[in-house]
Amino acid sequence: LSLYSSPARETKYVENPQTELEEGVSRLRHHMEPYTAWCQGNEICEEVSCPLGLTAALCSDFFSEGYEFLQKPPAGFYPRLGVIGFAGIVGLFLARGSKIKKLVYPAGLMGIGISMYYPQQAVAVAKVAGAQLYDWSLQGYIAVESLWKDN
User: Fold this and answer.
1) What is the pTM of this model?
2) How far apart are CA 28 and CA 39, in angstroms?
């Protein structure tokens, strides 16, 4: 026998009301449903130009490979991505003032973060970028020299 009586259970399920954003998205989906259903079986929609300037086949391969990669990422991918993104945010925070700082600091800190996690790829990119920078500086030197000699 129980010493205490249990209270009667009167539970009732209450659904949370939808926010304005949820209602707006719901209305938009409802209005766009006929168009999306029409476009799914239409050949014209499959030939829409790719935002990267690739052909439709290469574009769909590119995005499908990216989608598959994000569905089954390698171990530790998302933490690395978080650290690299956080480095960019810290760069934006530190870059108060000029617009050049707002470009250089986040890109530099993200580049340092990427090079910590992917050193072989960073070396390859640095070699290509170094060669390209050398070519640009040589072209600039030649242009300045030709202007100097003309005057």
Assistant:
1) 0.49
2) 16
Helix axis angle, 99-117 to 119-150, nearest 10°:
140
In 59-69, which positions are buried (b, 16+ CB within 10 angstroms) versus exposed (e)?
Answer: beeeeeeeeee
Residue type, 54: L
- Cα–Cα–Cα angle for 82, 84, 88, rounded to 5 degrees: 110
96 CB contacts (<8 Å, ≥6 apart)? none
CA 44 to chain centre: 28
Who's near 51: CB < 8 A, 6+ residues apart? Answer: 59
Which residue type is seen at 86? F
80-115 pLDDT, tens digit per residue, is 999 999 999 999 999 888 889 999 999 999 999 999
